[in-house]
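Illustration: Acetolactate synthase small subunit.
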Amino acid sequence: MRRVISVIVLNEHGVLSRISGLFAGRGYNIDTLTVAPIPGTELSRISIVTSGDERVLEQIVKQLHKLIPTYKVIESGEFVEKEMALVKIPLSENFGGLDAILKAYNGIVANTNENYIVVMVSDDASRIENFLKAIKKFNPTDVVRGGSVLMDL
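Result:
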């Protein structure tokens, strides 16, 4: 079962280590993890995507609530969730249809040089997965996928 958790914490050293330790200590994998400061505050938002047994996830969430630097844990409700991917494609490829794929997945050309073009897309996690399948026909040489970024509604 896929689970999305947003944790608001005090922006201080060691917090990320303690949070990831909660998952590791229970043998749980974090699928994606992103951290960013919240502008105008001394807080940061940690966005976690994980999956697994409901009972163990409930224990992890309870432990997150008990951590001293934790201000708020949001584990249910509606989120706006977006991911980003960068894909490097050799300029020797035929780019027929690339514009249509980029438009369909909120993509742009992020950079180019004499050998490669780098495209960037930002969309829902499942749509990023579909984009990466569609872009394979252009024989990418490198793919970097960012973690989910969350905002509760």
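Reading the tokens back as a structure: Helices lie at 15-25, 54-66, 98-104, 125-134.
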